[in-house]
Amino acid sequence: MSESAALEIARSIGVGQLISVGEHGLNATFVPFNIVSRADGVVVQAHLNRVNTQWKDDGDALLIVQGPSAHVAGTDLPAERKGQKLPTVPTLNYVTVHFHGRLSYHDDDAWKRAHLEALVEEFEDEWRVGTHSSYKLAEAAFVALVGVELEVARIEGKAKLGQNMSPADIAHTAQHLRQRGSSGEVAALMEEIAVPWAQAREERVTNAKHGHRSLPIDGGLAT
Description:
This protein has 223 residues and is α+β, with helices and mostly antiparallel strands. It has helices at 3-13, 109-123, 135-140, 167-180, 184-209, and strands at residues 15-22, 25-32, 34-38, 41-49, 59-72, 91-106, 145-160. 32% of the residues lie in helices and 34% in strands. The chain has a 7-stranded antiparallel beta sheet with strand order 2-1-5-6-7-4-3, sandwiched between helices. α4 (167-180) packs antiparallel against α5. The chain is elongated, with a radius of gyration of 22 Å. The mean pLDDT is 89.
């Protein structure tokens, strides 16, 4: 997926597994986060409880943001056709985003306050500090928190949604997923992302056979 598409999905989910390496090996914590775009790049901000020593793991880290996923049953797929070269088998469709970068920490109240206000704005429709809780009480909790910031070096977005199938077969599978009530969200993503991708792929193949140049695939997915 393109960086912009991956960022949009990660923002819409807002939680992920922060993985880093510390003195005693691998550490992982499931955290809510907010993404900050700056002139010099993207950073992901989160916070940990002070007793969670992962905040001391400055260095290389990975944040995994898991998007929608669904088991695609064999009966969701089109029936096998005479002459096809590979079997039609059940599979898993999914979307995920990986942020690779370096981790650092922030232990000052000004950073924590700005970060928590941004999280509240992102996750809460009505509740606000200053209205439903006092700033004094919120800031009293800062001593138990340490802010962490991932300076993003690389964003990797993956969408496995049946792009190796024909557009008609993807649409067929998405319709069956929706009818079965398994995952309407994954079905919608298949129609939004995988169908156009497969259509563009078929157009490229046709143009190549006839010696025509074709435009690169659009819509957020790399070839």
